[in-house]
From TrEMBL, chains A, B:
May play a role in DNA repair. It seems to be involved in an RecBC-independent recombinational process of DNA repair. It may act with RecF and RecO. Signal peptide: none annotated. It comes from the Bacteria. This is Recombination protein RecR. HAMAP family: RecR (MF_00017). Residues 80-182 form the Toprim domain. The gene is recR. GO terms for molecular function: DNA binding; zinc ion binding. GO terms for biological process: DNA recombination; DNA repair.
Length: 203, 203
């Protein structure tokens, strides 16, 4: 096997990349100037050296040296709420919105609806431990901020059920993001499930 | 800017990759085991060392050492025909079909319909030089095997027009791939352009 095929096989492991696009990536790299290719190889090789995973929220952050916590977990913030999100990019979205000032926890994925071993797909044990630690610090609400789709719904139900005994023990409430019309939605084009939630959550 | 953003910006240069997918690639790499990431960085860094571009047909091939020609250009084949293809993967497709035994030339792309400087998008000068060399060796036909879409049509017209003086000088004919129904096509669902060609090329 040539190194074209070797590299294509590695690219095929990337999310959403099939055989054809993997090959296209390799030919694209072959056509680039050597400086670009060198930079890419170096950035990939050094990614793990400069990026660490936060011990508290599990998101990836630029390593700073002294602490094992990301800048957000290290700063003096509201300890009463914990926002559970699916993946790293969701953190940026929430942070940018400026509408949340509490703590974060990255669940690391969602659970496929037919999954037999749900706990293998997400950081549920780590979340339980985080809540137990949080309870000492005044945690009073866990917000499950997962996707509004079947997989997100299934994951939310599983997480809520698993957290319930611990939440009851420490009187912590488990909430979810409100459902309804997204800003910019025209009523004419909204699906019936969205409409159902919008009617239920009317204010 | 963190190395997450740095690497995401490099991935955004990849064909068909936008901001979101570039970031997803970085988080995917952060979640992989170090062995995978190291292999990827190494394969990318060494790609150019093990792969060369053929001096005659311009396709990329595993470097073998002695010659600057790929295995297909180096072998003893039919010198009378030259098949002009758009890109490297097209070579594999033709080769696999087993229906062509002559020489190849990789044009390196197609020309966008509104392009002002068509010669900058494809290897037209290299093709002219190749044909001139080929004429000495008995080249009698150049087959333009480009895509059957507007950009392919535009490129084919441009290439045919540019080659004409040279082709006439050496009595080389310029042909294109036949157009008609693809195998498996149902007449009911074929577009009118395909049908037009199929009727014209009936046999």
């Amino acid at each position: 096997m040539s190194s074209i095929d070797n590299l294509a096989q590695l690219f095929m492991k990337f999310p959403g990349i099939g055989t054809r696009q993997a090959k296209r990536f390799v030919y694209f790299l072959l056509a680039q100037d050597p400086y670009f290719v060198e930079s890419l190889a170096r950035e990939i090789a050094e990614l793990n050296k400069s990026i660490a995973q936060c011990e508290s929220c599990f998101r990836f952050y630029p390593r700073t040296g002294v602490t094992n916590l990301c800048s957000t977990c290290a700063e003096d913030a509201d300890n009463t709420t914990l926002l559970v999100i699916e993946k790293d990019p969701d953190f940026d979205t929430v942070k940018r919105s400026g509408s949340y000032t509490g703590r974060y926890f990255v669940l690391g994925g969602t659970i496929p609806v037919l999954e037999r071993d749900p706990s293998s797909k997400i950081r549920i044990r780590e979340l339980l431990a985080r809540i137990e630690r949080g309870a000492v610090d005044g945690l009073s609400e866990v917000i499950l901020a997962l996707s509004a789709n079947p997989e997100g719904d299934f994951t939310r139900e599983y997480v809520a059920k698993t957290l319930t005994p611990l939440a009851e023990k420490f009187s912590i409430s488990i909430t979810t993001l409100g459902r309804g019309l997204s800003t910019g939605t025209e009523l004419e084009y909204s699906d019936s499930d969205t409409l159902k939630h919008a009617l239920k959550n009317r204010g």
